[in-house]
Amino acid sequence: MWELRWVLLALGLVLIAAVWVWSGRSTGDSGKSDRSQRRRVSREEAADSESGASAAAEGESSAEAVAIAGDDAGNDNDAEGAAGDNGTGPAHEQGAAEQPTAEQLAPEQAAAEKASETIDKVITVRCQTKEGTMSVEQVILALRAAGLRHGRYDIFHRHAEGTEGEPLFSVANLTEPGSFDLTRASEATTAGITLFMVLPGNGDAVERFDMMTRTARELAGELEAELYDESGSFWSIQRERYVRDEVILHGLKHEKR
């Protein structure tokens, strides 16, 4: 009887030991499984992170590409605008169409632009009174007395004797539009007159200049006026000599062409 008990006790101990060993192995396997699962999860998270980073990088690259494309488009537009501004685009064509007409220039330059397309220089002497205005009728009488005739562009011209071609010099009205309306001469006033000649022009330039300045002094005496240059400075003897030298120099250069 005691032997049976000892046998059963021994079997119980063996069973307990087996259970204990099995439990430890199961726990170890479970721990290994947990660690393996955690490592797998970590690897998947790392893969997801790398995938997210790659997607973000691609998104940033795309955004950067879009931004660069936008900048390039803006630069192209700026370049087109610059092309228009520097004289090669529509802006230049519009600006060219808005160039001032001959009527918008100074009276003597307007008439000169109409008179010739090959003008190198315009020599100008202005005749004005200190009071500021003079009678147009009185001016016309003085011009006719000095040998000038009303003609093309409604201004006065001095021609060579017996000719009707290009004038030696001309006289325009300083009051816009620069012409003389003979039908209203008796009631009109003017700020003055301007005598001008164009270079190269018709005939000897120095002789024409001397004739023009001589006529200007006669008109100034008749109209009780003063003479000025194109900038409004007083027409002194020194100024006249300087301009005469310019006329001579221009003639020499013109002969060499």
**CATH architectural grouping of the largest domain:** 2-Layer Sandwich
Q: Mind telling me the CATH class of the largest domain?
A: Alpha Beta
| Main beta-sheet strand count, sense and barrel state | 6 strands, antiparallel
Distance between the termini: 153 Å
Classified in CATH, the superfamily of the largest domain is ZipA, C-terminal FtsZ-binding domain
Overall radius of gyration: 52 Å
Task: Describe this structure as you would to a colleague.
The protein has helices spanning 2-85, 90-97, 107-115, 136-145, 205-223, 237-256, and strands at 121-128, 134-135, 149-150, 156-158, 169-173, 189-190, 193-199, 226-228. It is α+β, with helices and mostly antiparallel strands. The protein has two domains: 1-99; 102-256, ZipA, C-terminal FtsZ-binding domain (Cell Division Protein Zipa, Chain: A, 2-Layer Sandwich), CATH 3.30.1400. Strands 3-4-5-7-1-8 form a six-stranded antiparallel sheet, with helices on both faces. A two-stranded antiparallel ribbon has the order 2-6. A hairpin with a 5-residue loop joins strand 3 (149-150) and strand 4 (156-158). Helix 5 (205-223) packs antiparallel against helix 6 (237-256). The longest helix is centred in the N-terminal third of the chain and has 84 residues, at 2-85. The N and C termini lie far apart (153 Å).
